[in-house]
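Pilot study result, target chain (574 residues):
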Amino acid sequence: MPTYDIVIKGGTVIDGLQTPRYKADVGIADGRVVRIGRIDASEGAEVVEAAGRVVAPGFVDLHTHYDSQVFWDPWCTMSGWHGVTSVVIGNCGFGFAPCKPEDRERAMLSLARNEAVPLKTMKAGMPWDWVTFEEFLRSVGRTPKGVNVMSFVPLAPLYGYVVGVDQAKERRCTDEELDRMCELLVEAMEVGGCGFSTQILGDAGNVQLDFDGTPMVTDMMTERELMAFSRALGSMGRGVAQITGSLDWAELMARESGRPIIWNALLADGALNQHGGQQLSHRDAIKRLTYMNEEEGLRVFAQALTTNFASEFTLEDYNLADAIPCWREACIGTIEEKMVKFADPVRRQAMKEVHDSRGGLFGAGYDLSEIKVHWISSDVPNARELKDTYEGFTIAEVAGREGKHEIDAFLDVAVAGQLRVGFATPMMMTPPQSMKEIATSSVALPGVSDGGAHTKFVTTARYATELLGYWVRKHQIMSLEEAHWRLSYYPAVAAGLKGRGFLAEGMAADVVVYDPETIDSLPAERLSDYPAGEWRLVQKAVGYDRIIVNGKTTFIDGECTGATPGKLLLHGSD
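Predicted structure:
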């Protein structure tokens, strides 16, 4: 009878601990790595030939928004396609628990705009069989999963549950309400939450707004409130907090809690920041973070954007221009209301003035002239004529051909296609030296995956594959040993995950087997695989021979096996 469920033969082991690579066999049984060394193939119920392949720990993705998607997509794709075996949900303060039944619609509306998760999909795909955070975790726990899932305790639902979302925007919470929210935070951590998350972007320059164009409920948090939550976290003696906002807020959280903080986001100078204006150069941010960690004893990690950035979007549901008042107003409402606004010459004049004053930049920093009409839906009136006339042309080309201002050319195409027009931005390429400075800094965790969010706009959940195939193989910004440490063990340590993120005998068998010469992301494509028939933009991967979660194979050469061995990870015990 075989000793092992799987034997991975003859691969190059890179263990995630920065140990120099070595060739060995890996034996897996009962969900764990049992032996690393020389193993006879006859001892395995299944044998994976891994000559010429890297055998490494599965990747740990700390910044995702799969809070709803996990209920209809067990493998949390895109992450599951790209070697990620453990994800952390509940980032940026956004989530769905605790939530009173009468507030469910309001919670989904916020996420529909803020993180661009289709409302119809959430309504069709979420079981909503919880009220409390503990009940939410139980629901995730009994849902089939192809990846491991751990959750922050997001602060926005606490405000909604105790104060009410709209009330909390009109006034600051009372001392009694703040105490109650801190009690709920502690209770949520006691049942497995890994800490709290929040977004504090204020009002000006914020592109992560609520469905009605107002700031999210956490955006206007005061120092008093953040200190209270931080001290509640500190009282647990464990856990981590995540913030999308300024480094000043991250520093305050670290001082008051005494716990590690994950700050979003560290960006190369000139890179697009979909979460608002970049406040510091990357060198200044790294210098400040290094000083906090090394001199002040404040453990603050930086989630670093380690992918080149491009976006596709439609004006049906665009929100990355929300920092500009005239665009924010026009982008709110029903499709019919938006079409009227986009056709309005008075509104267009305001948009032209902004466009000209910003040097032709649109939204979160794209050059409008270079944006291309990528596709027009086949079910709009005169679709064939519109496609033949506009698809594949840039806005500058359309404007020049038709003698129009670029704003008019852009909006005329969108309105003619009833907003079901896909626009594509050029890829914003980060210089390799800048990426090296960011990705190899002592404080950096690669990612800003945003998996599960902005699914019609961006595909940054490919970050692990891009790091290995583009930044390491092509540009050699770091060794494979360092890359796997940063993709697996370092984020596991940052999040307080036990027994994950590295390969060693006795550890959980979360493993990737891949070809270092061919690993890559495939071109972007649209899939209509969301509940209620909604589509999303994705990039799949090539080069992964096997992805194994808790000792079970979930993907072979990019094809899903249907296995759902993922676990709910409870902080403090897992």
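One observation from the pilot: The chain has a mean pLDDT of 95. A full batch analysis is planned for the follow-on phase.
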